[in-house]
Amino acid sequence: MIKFLKIVAISIMMVLATPWQAANAATGATSISVTIPDIIILHYVSSLSITFTGAGLDTQDDEGAATGFSGAFAATVAAVGGLTTGTLDSDTAFDTTGGIATVTVSDAWAVRGVTSTGDIRVSGTISDASANNVASIVTLSNILLDSANDATSFADANSDFTAPGMAKPNAELGDVRFDVDISAVTLTGAHTTGEYTLTAAAL
To answer: What are phi and psi of 13, to 5 degrees?
Structure first.
């Protein structure tokens, strides 16, 4: 009988305890902090081919009694990497100081990213000014940059803009412009090893 009463008492205690345990709960909130470093992604074209063609390359000018030679020329630029081919015109004469064409390459680079300042600068330099074919030399100079949201157009070798974020559709597209001097060219064919370098950094 005593054993039976103990079993009944334990059963009653379990029944009484069950609702109290089910109603009890504990809640905790976790605060989350996400730290983002400076992230800059530069898209660029690693190879560029420039070909001089068209009117003005082969000319016959009667200059009278050996008074000198002059003649305008045109250039085209074809860029590897899906860039648009465009026609480049120059009024520079073929004389002792001439032979310079200004080349503009559209959408030559793109940048996406975030910075602590909220701004990004892309800078351009001519890292190898000479494109050579043996002793025949093409000289590169005067690099200028521009982009969609730059406040100035080809003002200098920098392009400054607000960081566009990480999404590819929002990337800042930019152009490169530089001079090509062929006054020291003595051979036809490809002149190689000329190079410009782009650097993207927080402004």
So the answer is: -65, -40
Q: Measured over all CA atoms, what is the biggest interatomic distance in the chain, rounded to whole angstroms?
A: 143
Tell me the pTM.
0.72
- Taken in order 154, 156, 159, 161, is the CA torsion positive or negative? negative
pLDDT in tens, 127-141: 999 999 999 999 999
Q: State the SS3 of 150-195.
A: CCCCCCCCEEEEECCECCHHHCEEEEEEEEEECCCCCCCCCCECCE
Distance (Å, rounded) from C-alpha 49 to C-alpha 62?
34
The closest of 68, 62, 21, 50 to 185, measured between CA atoms, is 50
- C-alpha dihedral (18, 22, 23, 28), degrees to nearest 10: 140
Q: Are 124 and 196 in contact, with CB atoms under 8 Å apart?
A: yes
Torsion (CA) 139, 141, 147, 150 in degrees, nearest 10:
180
Q: 31: helix, coil or strand?
A: coil
